[in-house]
Amino acid sequence: MAINVQLKAAGFLCLLIIGIPANISLILRFAHIGLLEKKLLPANIIRISLSLANLFVLFSRIVPQALFSIGLKHLLNDQQCKLFIFIFRVSRAMSICITSFLSCHQCIIIAPSTGKWIYLKQIVSRYALIIISLFLAMNMAIYPNPILFGRATTNETLSPYTLHLVYCDIDYMNYPTYLINGLVSVVREIIFVGLMTLSSMYMVYVLFHHGKSMKGKRSSDKGQRKTVEYKASRAVILLVTMYMALFGMDNSMWIYTLTMTNVDPDVSDTRVFLAASFAVLSPIHIFATTPKLHFFFQTPCKMRTIDIQTIITNESRNNVQNSLNEVKNLHEDAWKM
């Protein structure tokens, strides 16, 4: 087995080993939080939907890709190819749309509660699931091409306007169809990544000015830990940077392939790896920037220590309150005398 094939196999297997458990753990954790709180917050619904989209990306594209890399060829027939490619295209598009929606949702939540912002807050809070369903319907309508042109890889001669996806081929037959299909994907991704970037920039702006207004009012917190505003800004900047790096490179390569015929399979493999990398990195990002999830991964000993500290703190507060009540009673008795 050639070195580049071994590297491909190792890379795709790493994506599966890390990405599938991370996304499943995230879904289970948010479901557990929903059961404890007896409700699912809109932001958590969006995050669960994102993890589901990531899982479909990994199962529909990376699993067959990894199996092919280790030598299992001719896995799928024509119908299975159409299904797998369609699921991959739709789930990848959902990943982009949902992440953009999450960024816009957070932007609207921290915006001032005035004018049209109040109406938008109500819309994104009440209809988060409906908005995600509309994204799904839109993306399913955009991608009929895998069903129309997808087929299992064979030794037959195909047109120059064919995408070779290792285990499947998509033969667009002519250049206009090939070009239009590519441009639709690029335009959609530019729109949603642009919305995410603008909303993230607005969030950073709001948080920066909030931090300046609070400067000096929380001097006791200095030197202990980074401020909440800084952590939120860092999370937003990391999310935007991740998108711009991965999908920027992916779309750049996709635009490049639109200018050529008989695309090298290595180029398609690189695009697949970049697209799937976000499915692995996004749950890690959510874990790292959501404090409520950290408690779930603490050891039982540490959790017990926290419980004991909480009990001691509550007892101390009760003792202080009792002392204050005794002093108050003594003062009242003194006045009566």
Task: Please tell me about this protein's structure.
This protein is mostly helical. It has a single domain, classed as Up-down Bundle (Rhopdopsin 7-helix transmembrane proteins), CATH 1.20.1070.10. Helices cover 78% and strands 3% of the residues. It has helices spanning 3-37, 42-69, 78-110, 116-126, 128-142, 145-149, 175-213, 228-257, 265-289, 291-294, 300-336, and strands spanning 150-152, 162-164, 168-171. Strands 1-3-2 form a three-stranded antiparallel sheet. The protein is globular. Pfam families: V1R. This is Vomeronasal type-1 receptor. Residues 22-286 form the G-protein coupled receptors family 1 profile domain.
Put the structure in a nutshell.
This protein has 337 residues and is mostly helical. 78% of the residues lie in helices and 3% in strands. The chain is built from eleven helices and three strands.
Q: Keyphrases for this structure?
A:
11 helices, 78% helix, globular, three-stranded antiparallel sheet, mainly alpha
Low-confidence runs of at least 5 consecutive residues: 219-226, 299-317
Enumerate how many helices there are, as a single number.
11
CATH topology: Rhopdopsin 7-helix transmembrane proteins
Q: What summary fits the major beta sheet?
A: 3 strands, antiparallel
The succession of helices and strands, N to C, reads: HHHHHHEEEHHHHH
Shape: globular
CATH homologous superfamily grouping: Rhodopsin 7-helix transmembrane proteins
Whole-angstrom Rg: 26 Å
Give the % helix: over 70%
Q: What is the C-level CATH assignment?
A: Mainly Alpha
What fraction strand? under 5%
Domain G-protein coupled receptors family 1 profile: 22-286
Family: Belongs to the G-protein coupled receptor 1 family.
InterPro entries: GPCR_Rhodpsn_7TM, Vmron_rcpt_1
GO biological process, one term: response to pheromone
